[in-house]
Specification:
Blueprint lengths: L2 H9 L24 H15 L5 H6 L3 H10 L1
Length: 75
């Protein structure tokens, strides 16, 4: 699992945010379009792309895209 691919996959879940602005350091909860629907999309993306399961509670405990990557990588 590569961080760069994960960041791109994460950015693809966002409709209104320029994907080029998303990095591992991005605090995704501070994005204007972050919502529970985007969180569900991220959960689905992780399942489809990486065959791993994350929960909403786990996503709430992460702060950055990099944190989320580390969570998924550790599963």
């Amino acid at each position: 699992m590569e961080l760069e691919k994960f960041v791109k996959d994460f950015a693809a879940q966002l409709d209104e945010t320029d994907p080029e602005t998303i990095t591992a350091e991005t605090e995704y909860k501070n994005l204007d379009e972050w919502s529970s629907l985007i969180a569900f999309a991220v959960i689905a993306m992780v399942k489809v792309e990486y065959d791993k399961t994350v929960t909403g509670a786990e996503i709430r405990h992460c702060n950055t895209v990099g944190d989320l990557f580390n969570l998924v990588a550790a599963k």
